[in-house]
Structures are given as C-alpha cells and as structure tokens.
Amino acid sequence: MSSHTHNSSTANVVGVHYRVGRKIGEGSFGVIFEGTNLLNSQTVAIKFEPRKAEAPQLRDECRSYRILAGCPGIPQIYHFGQEGLHNILVIDLLGPSLEDLFDMCGRKFSVKTVCMAARQMITRVQTIHEKNLIYRDIKPDNFLIGRPGTKNANVIHVVDFGMAKQYRDPKTKQHIPYRERKSLSGTARYMSINTHLGREQSRRDDLEALGHVFMYFLRGSLPWQGLKAATNKQKYEKIGEKKQTTPIKELCEGFPEEFGIYLNYVRKLGFEETPDYDFLRELFAKVLKNNGDIEDQVYDWNLLNGEL
Question: In whole angstroms, how far apart are CA 93 and each of 32, 60, 75, 123, 216?
C-alpha cells in the first residue's frame, strides 16, 4: 500500500469522494478497507488491487457486478477506477461472512439454519446463472449477511466475482463447449468432483459445491479436510479421490435424507443441463416442515448473546 492510504488526513480520499478508513480484509487480490462516501456519509467497502497484479481480477469482477446490478443479495457497486498504483472498486459494505458466523456459533449450524441459508444460497446461484454466469468459487467466506441492524441483516449476499465466467452467450444462449484438462480453479475443499477431474465447469458445479458447503455447516467439517501431501497438486488429487470414494449416504449420515437427495441430484446433472432450482429449494422447505420449524429468518447467529 502506498503511504498516503495510511494517514487519516484529507489526502486519504479516493474516487473523488470516498474516504478510506480501516482495513477490514485481504485476499490474494489485494486489500479491502471500510470507507465513507463523503457526499452522503454512507459507509462502503473499498477494494484495492495492485495494477501490476499477475492476474488482475477487479475489472472483471466489476463487470460481473454490473451484469447483476439490482438483483437481490448482490452488493451495489458505486465506483471503479485507478488510484495511483491500484485499481479500486467501491461497493456496499456488508456484515460478516457465513464462515465468520460459523466460527461465532461454535463451528456447527443447526439443521434449521442450514436449510434457511441453503434456500437463499440456491436462489443467489440461480440469479447468477440466469444472468449467463457461473460463479466457480463457492465457499462460506464469499457469502455475507447484511450489516447487523439494517433491513438486509439476514439477507445472504454473494461477493467476490473474481472467478466468475460466462457459460453461455447472453443473446443466443449457446452454451460453452465441454472441455477437459482444465487447470483447477476454486477452493479444493468445496469444489465438485468434475472440477477435480479437470472438466470445464458449468451450472452443476456451483450447485455441487453448495452441497458440500451445506454438509460442512451441518457436520462441522468434511471427511477430506486435513489431508497431507507433498505438493498442492497432490493434495488436490487426494481431496478429489476422497470425495469420489466417500458415499453420499456416509457423508450425510445422521442428517435429513434431503441433503443426500440434493447431492445425488446435482452430481447427476449433465454438463449443459438446466438445474431444477425450485425442486432443490423445496427439499429444504420440506426439512423445515418435517422438523416443525418455520422459515422465520431467525438464524443461529441471531440467538447469540447480545446479537452481532
């Protein structure tokens, strides 16, 4: 970071009218700061990416946000531009991620919380797919609730579109061709078996990765976590092998059968097939009903002492 982004003087203003505040996160791409729109005092998030980054993503990410603009659960984007040696993106500031909340809740979520979250997450992924994009980096860290105390506090949002890709032509709806020997992209823990096998990703892979996230939330961990290998490539292979050899029945043992039905369904989808999102959402409505729960948007994290 250049020094002027650190002092809290008036020099610390980017994109004409955004003051940069405290650092709230970082990733492979760069750093995220909290900021303020000086025109209306709105709090925002400002993402900085070095312009000389090996694989700049911010411009592409900005493009995805623009395609998805106005969709529920997608943060609004306010500014994209260059600031000194960095690209910057100014978007809505949101609350903690599902991974943060999972930690706060003792690294287990109740069936009720997982079902209510699953229904929202399937809808977000459907929205992305309907806009001709696949997400390709499904993980709990990329799903954020709204800021506590706001009207969107329990709306689950999707952030970080650095890996998103168009899977069909927006006009003709012609699907991308099936390919193999692709290099792995995404997070090994959650990625689909087909992704491990180097197959081109499509809609089915986003949904399979979601299924792995649901089981992670219920179980507290996945059977392929913590595998050791000499190289990353070998580790990815080991994880892939363990996924292929862990029966769905075993993975979902002790939990409502709908979780297994979900995984079986998404793993059987064809490369170009349009998933039945309603059927998948309905599975989790059924679990709630069978457990005598109502979808009241009261999640485990809302029951923590003193709220968030």
Answer: 10, 20, 8, 21, 26
